[in-house]
Write a structure and sequence with these properties.
By secondary structure, this protein is of the alpha/beta class. Helices cover about 40% and strands about 15% of the residues. The strands form 2 sheets. Strands 1, 2, 3, 4, 5, 6 and 7 form a 7-stranded mixed beta sheet that branches. Strands 8-9 form a two-stranded antiparallel sheet. Bound molecules: guanosine-5',3'-tetraphosphate.
């Protein structure tokens, strides 16, 4: 999905996406909404509920391998209490992906019973995956497809139609996921998305972004900062001062011993995105 990464969401594009999703929705029994387990609120598309109407919805907290497991557990409880079906997965390594079909069967139990009563017992469950760019839609589809991913027809004169990918347990996936626009009008959400690299980080300068991340980590995950950057858990500093601290502790200095905060910011963001600071959640219920 490289080409999806730099999509600029403009009104015309959004209208087209809405139409395409509405069309695909008529073909499926349920939608699987893919969220980033580290930031389940900010990685949610603001219009999804309106777009999907009353279609049964499974929430998938993806990238669970990078999120704080305690906080992810709290999110699962939170969504369950709101009546959602929810599973946590790591689509990169395939962990948790086995829960997909059983969770859908549970979610669609009333419909499946109706079908069975009408003698349509072997009817497959059809699902589409929806989510913002970079949340892991292709990774999940590839995992669920188990290598036997549907190929597009490339013979001349054959129109490319949407195809179904057979997964386990009678579940079929629409091969093209719905790519939704992220919540960029909310500044705090946009900043958290930028921290994870889900959106381009030029919405804020790197040093400002890194300073905000350090302030958050210093409060929420002080051990991670002391382990990796030797920033003591009890220093009463925040933001840019912490970034200077980090640069000095890492020996990132400019002539004259001035801390190179630009280099430190890039290092912090890279290392955070590569989960080198451990499993960290940016939002708690
Ligand atoms: P998209 O279709 O929603 O746009 O997302 P895609 O699957 O392309 O995934 C975006 C990036 O997130 C990829 O990394 C992918 O490997 C990673 N990713 C997806 N799911 C998970 C997960 O559950 N855990 C972890 N740790 N990473 C995940 P990339 O850096 O763009 O590519 P690559 O380095 O993996 O090749």
């Amino acid at each position: 999905m490289e080409d999806m990464k730099d999509i600029q969401w403009f009104p015309g594009h959004m209208a087209k996406t809405r139409r395409q999703i509405a069309k695909s929705l008529s073909l499926v029994d349920a939608v699987a909404e893919l969220l980033d387990a580290r930031l389940p609120v900010s990685s949610r598309n603001p219009e999804l509920k309106q777009l999907t109407g009353r279609k049964p919805r499974l929430i998938i907290l993806n990238k669970a391998d990078m999120a704080d497991p305690n906080v992810t557990g709290q999110w699962v409880q939170y969504y369950k209490q709101q009546g959602f079906a929810v599973i946590t997965v790591d689509s990169k390594n395939g962990k948790g992906v086995k829960q997909f079909a059983p969770a859908l069967r549970e979610l669609l139990k009333p419909q499946l019973e109706k079908y069975a009563a009408k003698g349509m017992k072997g009817r497959p469950i059809r699902v589409m995956i929806l989510g913002i760019p970079n949340v892991g839609k292709s990774s999940l589809i590839n995992r669920l497809a188990g290598g036997k991913r549907a190929k597009a027809e490339d013979r001349a004169g054959v129109t490319r139609t949407q195809q179904w990918i057979k997964t386990t347990d009678g579940v079929e996936l629409l091969d093209t996921p719905g790519v939704l626009w992220p919540k960029l009008d909310d500044q705090d959400a946009a900043v958290r998305l930028a921290m994870t690299g889900a959106v381009r980080d030029d919405i804020l300068d790197k040093e400002a972004l890194a300073a905000r991340l350090l302030t958050y980590l210093h409060t929420g995950y002080p051990q991670a900062l002391s382990d990796r950057y030797k920033i003591a858990a009890d220093v009463e500093e925040e933001g840019f001062v912490l970034l200077e601290h980090m640069a000095r502790n890492r020996g990132m200095l400019l002539p004259g011993g001035v801390p190179n905060t630009e280099r430190a910011a890039i290092a912090l963001l890279d290392e955070f995105r590569a989960a080198k600071l451990g499993r960290i959640s940016l939002e708690k219920p």
